[in-house]
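Let's study a protein:

___
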Amino acid sequence: MKRRNFLRLLGLFGLGLASSNYFLTARGTTPNNATEESLPLFRFVALGDVGTGNIGQLAIAEVMEDYFQKLPFAFILLTGDNIYEDGEISRIGAAFERPYRFFRQQGVPFYAVLGNHDIRTNNGIEQVNYSGYNMQGRYYTFTQDIVQFFALDTNKNASWSEQLIWLEENLASSTATWKIVFAHHPLYSSGIHGSSPKLIEKLSPLFARYGVQLYLNGHDHNYERTKPIEGTTYLTCGAGAKTRPVWNSDWTARSAARLSFATIDVYPEYLEIQGIGKNGQVFDRGKVIRIGSG
């Protein structure tokens, strides 16, 4: 989405920049300073572990709707466990279609990955084939503007040998300014499940070698943003419907055990991450600076 199109979207939703108080809260600048150059190229949202149909999921969906009507975003990433408890596609109405009806009506696409609960029924095949999740396979890639996204299957029964070859080939050939990977399981986590030494061993060398700047995951039902670890920031956003405790580690920049979703604003020189709770308030704000940009 180009800046001029972003401005057009703002106009469609009645967002005269001079009167947008939410812009002041969410972007950290005054409306009078809001110029075309200060706008992101595009914005997207990430959250995971949503597929409950419960009051928590509905509350976060409502806050996302309010946010979208003030600050539109291009698409939504789902970081797995899309349908609880066992990934049954028969629950797609309660777990996805009804909670996110507004976004489906607005034509906002979702891009999903499989979580450990999703593969309990027929290894998640029905979810892979479900058009609303836009999965091009168990792992896939797509590009938006200057960002290339890489979706992975991090379940234990994933086709790891083939997937790692695919990932390295696609990372090596990518010419995107930003490389963002999203999957269900964390590499680094201060939550209940904790870090995964096996995933660190498999994936972090590729991230460092090919310049992956951001990794998004769910699985732990909390929010946690790390400091850069060998050039990669890790963001757990698995509190889209329910929460569990989270602590702090040496690498933690911010953690919170609260219902939430994350927004990521994409600029040529940096990414701006925000954590937003069910009260609609921004509780975390951080930047990922592109190496060599300054």
Residues 104 and 164 are 33 Å apart (CA to CA).
